[in-house]
Specification:
Blueprint (H helix, E strand, L loop, with lengths): L3 H15 L1 H9 L12 E2 L6 H19 L9 E3 L3 H11 L4 H7 L1 H26 L9 E2 L3 H16 L3 E11 L4 E3 L1 H7 L1 E14 L6 E7 L10 E4 L4 E7 L2 E6 L9 E7 L7 E2 L7 H6 L4 E5 L12 E3 L5 H10 L29 H10 L3 E12 L9 E10 L5 H9 L2 E3 L2 H12 L3 E2 L1 E2 L9 E3 L6 E3 L3 H7 E3 L1 H4 L13 E3 L6 E4 L3 E2 L1 H6 L1 H4 L7 H7 L2 E7 H4 L3 H13 L4 E7 L2 E3 L15 H8 L1 H9 L7 E3 L1 H24 L2 H4 L11 H22 L3 H29 L3 H18 L4 H11 L23 H6 L1
Parallel strand pairs: 1-2, 2-3, 7-10, 8-13, 17-27, 26-27, 28-29
Antiparallel strand pairs: 4-5, 4-16, 6-7, 6-15, 8-14, 9-10, 9-11, 12-13, 16-18, 19-25, 20-21, 20-24, 22-23, 23-24
Helix pairs in contact: 1-28, 3-22, 12-13, 21-22, 22-23, 23-26, 25-26, 25-27, 26-27, 27-28
Length: 788
């Protein structure tokens, strides 16, 4: 039984001892370049099998281009900064809040984060090597590097000078556990979970109308102390309904919620001008903001599917509410602090977590006879992409890059890229058309230190664009910082003078959105700010290759946007995306579900080549179902290729093998036919790979060796090869050598193992030092193929 795992480990040792990768790079050095841009893998955990799919593509394309003679950089990348690392370090240390970090010491926490990134980058390097991925591993880039961080400073300086950077006060998604804003990109990354919340139908008494109430519904009772208005749709039909408990106003279509007799109907706009009594008028924060009742406002966004058609508006707790509040000049009640606790002026709620107050609010409203009904409501709700906490929405000051100023040219830039699959362009443009301004700040610790210096005396802010500029402008703290990387807390010690009023000012404490880190790599990794000639040689990249569902709004967006600002053009010619990996049942893999498959487990069980062949034959548009039963089918196909090799080695001695020629014209019709089929395969496989169509190329290769060679040619040529017909043996030898070259980028270990047994002294030391085969069109006989 052929042992893929044992053989692969032997081949890895052969490659290392004979410096095959180094010889390949030397062979192609100085030739025409082909530039691949590696999207950084997060250096935070060991690889799963889903990582292996994308890394198989990356390795395959680079090996293919190397066999075609292209010079390449082979640079791998690691994403090192941000919440994904912070949260794991917090778990290791047993921390649950930001205060735990500050008590421990920000400096010690940052060092722990660096150590984790370094640890897992080494583990992932070893795992990638085990997969067969060839990279210039000692020259990998790290997004936590000084070079990358200072490069982003230069980018932000340009945004500042162009007028793109601003401080905005807005309601944003907020993680109560992580204590930071969660951007629009990250909400979509983390997604939504189906969660059951307590929803409340509550009564708002109309002023000057005895025993008449608006009936309102919400799934976020904690926001009710921040209510300042209700909204109705101006054109929808509402009704006033008489019941034993009084008269209620709600959508006519929702009357069945309460029963009773309809007294009259009217359009929502007839409610404009009415006012109602609030729920928590006794709270100091409410009294300070509401002086003369609560208004009814018109809003076209009111929907009929949920609730009563009368919407509770709390501009301090909802993004849409905040925008509506600005349009209608509504007051804003801001209830929460960074810890998601109520601020002091909220009476009985002060200091309490907003996620734990439902019962307190319900009891309070019951005493006031404001509760109509409380019910469980199941819906999709946003969660933190790193810790899975349920998000809230709160009013904060954050830093943004304005999208409206670059949106149109960015869309035009995206259109210049060849997107694979083709629907990628539509998805990217949809994101660019609809995304809000880019929220780039985080109130955290381990990340890019935003080089923004804000003066609280005069309100001016400035941006420092480099380490050299900071040194020149520093008036305090430079000596304490100079020996450190540009991270907190050391960077926080440096102070400069306000360019406007001359006061000594500090850097804002915020760190950057981690997609700034990854978005800078088309520039920081190729010397954009230090060696423009080198950068020009490799920019733009020919290809990037990543899992596409989340990257349209994350890495693909970041590299396109940052390149638009710096160079007014895309950083890549082709963006290749692939779908997700699920288990054999089609379910998402999760550690908590027990169905996650780690790379180390899979590679020891089935081997890297079987995985790579499975990935290669998958249509990248569709999610892949990974499992060991499925893997056995692909293993069986590769064993068929191995059987062809074994047959040749069994019936043709090594002494006779070295005498076989590969440059001859066969006379036998079977030989002519199979050589015609081979050259057709070379032609088509090359065309496919030139278009990055890995699936079609691999399926054609498999069909050739399984159907054409094994089932057809070999069965009809056994007697000739057994006998003295050297032409048949030469034909099979020629076919096998060509097949090994074709399959080498796909299954590098298996191709190498067979090649080393077949090679002669005149051949290169490795199959991967061979040139990619070229089709001889003169040997393609379409008529013969059709007849056969």
């Amino acid at each position: 039984m052929y042992d893929f795992v044992k053989t692969e480990k032997e081949i890895l040792k052969f490659w290392e001892e004979n410096k095959i990768f180094e010889k390949l790079r030397e062979k192609n050095r100085g030739k025409k370049r082909w530039s691949f841009l590696d999207g950084p893998i997060t250096a935070n955990n060991p690889m799963g099998v889903h990582h292996a799919w994308g890394r198989t593509y990356k390795d395959l394309f680079q090996r293919y281009k190397a066999m075609q003679g292209f010079d390449q950089r082979f640079q791998n990348g690691f994403d090192c900064q941000g919440l994904w690392v912070e949260v794991e370090v917090e778990k290791e240390l047993g921390f649950t809040t930001k205060k735990d970090i500050e008590r421990y010491g920000i400096d010690k926490f940052i060092e722990k984060c660096k150590e984790r990134a370094e640890k897992y980058s080494k583990i992932q390097t070893e795992q990638s090597i085990r997969l067969g991925q060839w990279m210039d591993w000692p020259n990998s880039y790290y997004t936590m590097s000084d070079e990358n961080n200072y490069a982003i400073w230069s980018f932000l300086k340009k945004c500042y000078l162009n007028g793109y950077l601003y401080k905005g006060r807005d309601v944003v998604a907020w993680c109560p556990r992580c204590g930071t804003a969660i951007s629009q990109h990250e909400i979509l990354e983390g997604g939504y979970q189906e969660i059951t919340h307590q929803a409340i139908f509550f009564k708002l008494p109309l002023l000057d109308r005895k025993n008449t109430f608006f009936l309102v519904w919400t799934t976020t009772p904690w926001t009710l102390p921040a209510n300042v208005a209700v909204a109705v749709h101006p054109e929808l039909i509402y009704a006033e309904v008489e019941t034993d408990g009084g008269n209620y106003i709600l959508l006519k279509d929702k009357v069945d919620l309460i029963g009773g007799k309809i007294l009259k109907t009217f359009r929502g706009k007839e409610l404009e001008g009415l006012k109602y009594q609030g729920l928590f008028d006794e709270l100091p924060a409410v009294r300070e903001n509401i002086k003369d009742g609560y208004p009814v406002v018109m809003w076209d966004e009111v929907v009929v599917e949920e609730g009563t058609g009368i919407v509770h508006i709390a501009p301090g707790c909802g993004a849409e509410d905040f925008q509506l509040g600005k349009e209608k000049w509504l007051p804003v009640i801001d209830p929460t602090n960074e810890e998601s606790r109520y601020k002091t002026p909220f009476g009985f709620l002060s200091g309490k977590l907003v996620t734990e107050v439902n019962n307190l609010i319900f009891e309070n409203l019951k005493k006031k006879e404001r509760v109509f009904k409380i019910e469980d409501y199941k819906h999709n709700y946003p969660i933190c992409w790193r810790c899975d906490s349920q998000l809230i929405f709160r009013l904060v000051n954050e830093w943004y890059i304005s999208m409206d100023k670059i949106r149109r040219p960015l869309i035009e830039s995206a259109k210049k890229v060849d997107w694979l699959p083709s629907f990628g362009l539509d998805r990217e443009i949809d994101w660019l058309n609809n995304m809000r301004d880019w929220l780039i700040s985080k109130k955290r610790y381990w990340g890019l230190a935003l080089p923004i210096y804000e003066c609280f005396s005069c309100g001016y802010f400035t941006v420092v664009g480099s380490k050299e500029e900071l040194k020149e402008k520093a008036v305090e703290g430079w000596d304490e910082f100079e020996a450190h990387s540009p991270h907190r807390p050391w960077i926080d010690k440096v102070k400069i003078k306000c360019p406007k009023c001359g006061k000594v000012i500090s850097r804002i404490l915020d760190v950057g959105n981690p997609w700034l880190d990854a978005g800078m790599v088309p520039f920081s990794t190729m010397g954009y700010f230090k060696d423009k000639n080198f950068w020009k040689k490799w920019f733009p990249a020919e290809l990037v290759c990543e899992c596409f569902p989340g990257q349209f709004r994350n890495w693909f967006y970041a590299i396109l946007a940052m390149s638009q600002v710096l160079e007014n053009r895309p950083p890549v010619k082709t963006i290749f995306g692939h779908a997700l990996v699920f288990d054999e049942k089609g379910e998402e893999m999760h550690k908590s579900k027990g169905n996650a498959i780690w790379f180390d487990e899979a590679v020891e069980k089935i081997g890297a080549d079987v995985m790579r062949w499975m990935f290669s034959k998958q249509n990248p548009v569709f999610d892949l179902r990974f499992g060991y039963k499925v893997a056995q089918e692909h293993r069986g196909k590769l064993l068929n290729l191995l059987n062809i090799y074994t047959f040749l080695k069994t019936y043709v001695s090594q002494d006779d093998l070295v005498k076989l020629k590969t440059d001859f014209l066969p006379a036998n019709i079977l030989d002519k036919w199979v050589i015609s089929r081979l050259n057709n395969l070379i032609l088509k496989a090359t065309e496919c790979l030139d278009k990055y169509d890995v699936m079609e190329s691999s399926l054609r290769i498999e069909k050739f060796f399984y159907d054409d060679v094994s089932l057809w040619y070999l069965r009809r040529s056994r007697s000739r090869i057994h006998g003295e017909d050297k032409e048949a043996a030469q034909t099979l030898y020629l076919i096998l050598l060509a097949l090994l070259k074709l399959i080498a980028p796909f299954t590098p270990f298996l191709a190498e193992e067979m090649f080393l047994s077949l090679r002669t002294e005149k051949m290169p030391a490795s199959i991967h030092l061979e040139n990619w085969p070229k089709a001889n069109k003169k040997l393609i006989d379409a008529e013969l193929e059709a007849k056969m």
